[in-house]
Design a protein that fits this description.
The complex is a heterodimer of chains A (302) and B (528). Chain A is built from ten helices and four strands, in the order H-H-E-H-E-E-H-E-H-H-H-H-H-H. Chain A is α+β, with helices and mostly antiparallel strands and 302 residues long. In chain A, a hairpin with a 4-residue loop joins strand 2 and strand 3. The radius of gyration of chain A is 24 Å and the shape is elongated. Chain B is an alpha+beta fold and 528 residues long. Chain B folds into three domains: 209 residues, Multidrug efflux transporter AcrB transmembrane domain (Multidrug efflux transporter AcrB transmembrane fold, Up-down Bundle); 78 residues, 2-Layer Sandwich (Hypothetical Protein, Haloacid Dehalogenase-like Hydrolase, Chain: A, domain 2), CATH 3.30.1240.20; 112 residues, Gyrase A, domain 2 (2-Layer Sandwich), CATH 3.30.1360. In chain B, the strands form five sheets. Chain B has a five-stranded antiparallel sheet with strand order 10-11-9-14-15. Chain B has a four-stranded antiparallel sheet with strand order 7-8-2-17. Chain B has a four-stranded antiparallel sheet with strand order 3-4-6-5. Chain B is elongated, with a radius of gyration of 35 Å. The chains are: A alpha+beta (302), B alpha+beta (528). At the A-B interface, helix 4, strand 4, helix 5, helix 7 and helix 9 of A face strand 17, helix 11, helix 12, helix 13 and helix 14 of B.
Chain lengths: 302, 528
């Protein structure tokens, strides 16, 4: 069975539209990458330091009540999030001053007093000191840098340099695109999201490698075919496997997204978007990039 | 069956059975397994995010440890200098430095001689009129700082062992940080109080002659300090503070005790902590109480007065009791920390992640559900799209998951919630390898090759593509393992083990099945 057979889609011809689209995606990502370390984003308490407490109430409660109770107690900066399932409330207090334990004790105390007829248990709590937050931020940046470098070295070693560069640009593009989308959606940036971004950096290369392998193979037995035609043909030849491999991964990620629970929802979303963008970029970004090189240098390695 | 196929069949079968044997003790089925089996095999550990528990990062106040050590050294130095009859007017600590004032030039010379001969851990850092300031050498400061971290770990481990938590994990991180992981903990508050308490126990005399009123206005007499007794009313919960003017010098400290136990006061039916001193402590205690009859002796823990009873008579036998408004629980914990000893310096909690057991259960349930749903969808899709070949890849996928779980049990790996996500991702990626191979085989078939040679060509040509795509993911997994902590490490572990097993099942496992099917007969068509 085949979903696609002998397609002859002119991907290369549409490269300028793709470049514009990708440039916008990447630009948003770059803006996010600049603003996030500056703290002008929805950073998780892993990075800012602070307190997060998840409460599970016996009975349903009104968000306005929770809000006003916290305001009265002097926690005006507290961020609240309600989980539909099981009457749960997540309270986050970023950049909390003073001793963490005192702050988290105060938070639970406030609710014990004000919600006397609605008992709750503390499902989870996290308190991160400001120095830890700084360290985790630094670690995350190192991790991103080292893994991208590692990928660049490996791909450059396995392919000719231009393939390596094109693949890494496409990978950067994918990571930036997801980062940008998350930034616009005002999703919380935490260690788990960074993990997802790094994972998709590794994974999004899969599709690119599939396409590049084919281009390289076709280059070896190239006749008089123009390079544009050759790249187009290669992309079309591997199109169905690109779509099926991404499709199966998307299917499991979709299951994770829908059924995996609150804690890893955003993590799954980042991976899901990443695989989507990664598939697009291996077709529309990575392959045409090889062509740009040719225009500049007047040749493509044979 | 040819030898090559048989050999591979045996290999795969062996790995499969091994994985099942390894994984079984980690499943709910383990309850019905014989004890020798389930107790002697490694198991997959559940991360704190799945089984609930507490993850603490503590920072030792190393500067304070140095100061404490200097304080201790001063006492010995004072005694030595008096023995050698050096005419001093003052010897006192200033943070981690010691200021010694002398009375004459002769005294200065003998002072420098005594210090030079006996204390090579001190160096002179400055000289003023009639005084010299000494500080610890850099190497000694460093040694004390390192010692304070390792000593604190030792003490905390001791306390937790006495408190009783299954499989606690305590280790150093960086220079002055301590990671404490307490899985399945029921009462986080109590554990924090137990771990975080410095537990310096001191016996000091109350300054009976001093003016408490003036002291509270800020005029504290030289050599005294103002400390408070905090006592919560059992009914109202209101805290009452009683001030005491206390002589700074401790007459006796907690490092001289050998035991601490909870006992019940027969008169008020209230728990108290009974402590027993060692022989030196007993001697000092009996001397001090003998000399101070009818005066008050304050019992102070971490700067808080617990009680300040009046000494009625000389107390021999080396026993004392600490009373306060204890519950049975707080008395037990105090006895634990006193027995385990004081921390060399205060510790600050700089990170605390606590997960309740019910959240962990919910997470496992959601994760397992997602994994099952995801697997079924993908299994179904492959069967539908590739028919018989899809069935072969489904077989590889099941093999893959079982071997992954077996390997995780073998390595005693920790499964975390992101780790479950890693396993699910591995399912998706494992299928990818087969898709690449199948599509290649299809393509080769279209060029008119025979089934046999198309299969071989498909595997050959897809080989490097599969290796390349797996290695790049492996690189990021390795980086994540290095930099990540807790849950993220768990993700890196399951992802990288999964990737390696993927390579095996995709390149060896499914190939064997294809070889088995095509061996010895000419297939005209392949269901793919």
């Amino acid at each position: 069975m085949d979903i696609l057979k002998d397609t002859k889609i002119d991907f290369i011809g549409k490269r300028y539209y793709a470049f514009i689209f990708s440039a916008i995606l990447a630009l948003v990502g770059i803006i996010a990458a600049v603003f996030i370390p500056l703290g002008k984003a929805n950073l998780g308490i892993d990075f800012t330091g602070g307190v997060a407490i998840q409460l599970k109430f016996e009975k349903p409660f009104a968000m306005e009540n929770a809000r006003s109770v916290l305001d009265k107690a002097g926690f005006k900066d507290a961020e609240l999030q309600q989980f539909a399932e099981g009457n749960q409330l997540l309270i986050r207090l970023k950049n909390a001053e003073g001793e963490l334990k005192v702050t988290s004790d105060r938070l639970t105390e406030v609710f014990t007093q004000s919600f006397a007829d609605n008992k709750f248990i503390v499902e989870s709590s996290a308190a991160v000191g400001p120095t830890v937050g700084k360290k985790l931020q630094k670690d995350a940046l190192w991790a991103v840098g080292i893994s991208l470098l590692g990928i660049l070295i490996y791909v450059a070693w396995r392919f000719e340099l231009i393939f390596g560069i094109a693949a890494v640009i496409a990978t950067f593009h994918d990571v930036l695109a997801v980062l940008g989308v998350f930034y616009i959606m005002n999703k919380e940036m935490n260690l788990l999201i960074i993990t997802a971004l790094l994972t998709l950096a590794g994974y999004s290369l899969t599709d690119t490698v599939v396409v590049f392998d084919r281009i390289r193979e076709n280059l070896r037995k190239r006749g008089k075919e123009a390079i544009e035609v050759l790249i187009n043909r290669s992309v079309n030849e591997v199109l169905s496997r690109t779509i099926v491999t991404s499709g199966t991964t998307l299917l499991v990620l979709l299951a994770l997204l829908v059924a995996g629970g609150e804690v890893i929802h955003d993590f799954s979303l980042a991976l899901f978007l990443g695989v989507l963008v990664g598939t697009y970029s291996s077709i529309f970004v990575a392959s045409p990039l090889l062509l740009l090189w040719k225009v500049k240098r007047g040749r493509l390695v044979r | 069956m040819s030898r090559s196929i048989l050999w591979r069949f045996v290999l795969i079968g062996f790995f499969f059975l091994l994985a099942v044997v390894l994984f079984l003790p980690s499943t709910p089925l383990s309850k019905s397994l014989p004890a020798w089996y389930k107790d002697n095999f490694p198991k997959i550990a559940l991360g704190l995010d799945l089984q609930g528990g507490m993850h603490l990062v503590l920072q030792v106040d190393a500067e304070k440890a140095v100061e404490n050590q200097v304080q201790r050294l001063i006492k010995g130095m004072d005694v030595l200098l008096k023995e050698k009859k050096v005419a001093l007017s003052e010897i006192k600590s200033q943070g981690s430095e010691i200021l010694i004032s002398y009375q004459s030039e002769d005294a200065k010379m003998s002072l420098e001689k005594v210090i030079g001969n006996n204390y090579d851990i001190f160096k002179k850092i400055s000289e003023k009129e009639n005084s010299i300031i000494y500080a610890l050498t850099d190497s000694e400061t460093k040694r004390i700082k390192e010692w304070s971290t390792s000593q604190a770990i030792e003490t905390i481990r001791n306390r937790i062992d006495k408190f009783g938590v299954a499989e606690p994990l305590i280790h150093a991180q960086g220079k002055d940080e301590i990671v404490v992981q307490l899985p399945g903990l029921k009462d986080p508050e109590r554990a924090i109080a137990l771990i975080g308490k410095t537990a310096v126990l001191e016996f000091k005399m109350v300054d009976e002659g001093g003016d408490l009123k003036k002291a509270m206005d800020g005029q504290i007499p030289e050599g005294d300090e103002l400390l408070y007794e905090k006592r919560a009313d059992k009914e109202t919960g209101a805290v009452r503070e009683t001030p005491y003017l206390i002589k700074k010098e401790a007459v006796l400290t907690g490092d001289l005790l050998t035991d601490a136990r909870v006992a019940i006061d027969s008169q008020f039916n209230e728990p108290y902590v009974s402590i027993t001193f060692d022989s030196e402590g007993s001697r000092i205690f009996s001397d001090v109480t003998g000399q101070n009859v009818n005066k008050r002796m304050a019992i102070i823990l971490d700067g808080n007065v617990y009680s300040a009873p009046v000494i009625r008579e000389k107390i021999g036998g080396g026993r004392a009791q600490i009373s306060g408004s204890f519950t049975h629980e707080t008395a037990t914990d105090l006895a634990i920390v006193l027995r385990a000893g004081a921390l060399p310096a205060p510790v600050n909690i700089i990170q605390n992640v606590t997960v309740g057991p019910s959240l962990g259960e919910d997470s496992i349930r959601a994760g397992v559900k997602a994994a099952i749903v995801g697997s079924i969808i993908v299994l179904g899709f492959m069967l539908f799209y590739y028919r018989l070949s899809g069935l072969i890849s489904d077989f590889a996928m099941v093999l893959n998951i079982i071997m992954l779980l077996g390997a995780m049990a073998w390595f005693n790996a920790t499964l975390t919630l992101p780790g479950i996500a890693g396993i699910i991702l591995t399912i998706g990626m494992g299928v990818d390898s087969n898709v690449l191979i199948f599509e290649r085989i299809k393509e080769e078939l279209r060029t008119g090759r025979t089934v046999r040679s198309a299969i071989d060509a498909g595997y050959d040509r897809a080989w490097w593509t599969i290796i390349d795509s797996h290695v790049t993911t492996l690189i990021t997994a390795a980086v994540l393992f290095q930099f990540g902590s807790g849950p993220i490490k768990g993700f890196a572990v399951s992802l990288s083990i999964g990737i390696l097993i993927n390579l095996f099942t995709a390149l060896v496992g499914t190939k064997m099945v294809f070889d088995l099917i095509t061996k010895g007969r000419r297939l005209e068509r392949l269901s793919i």
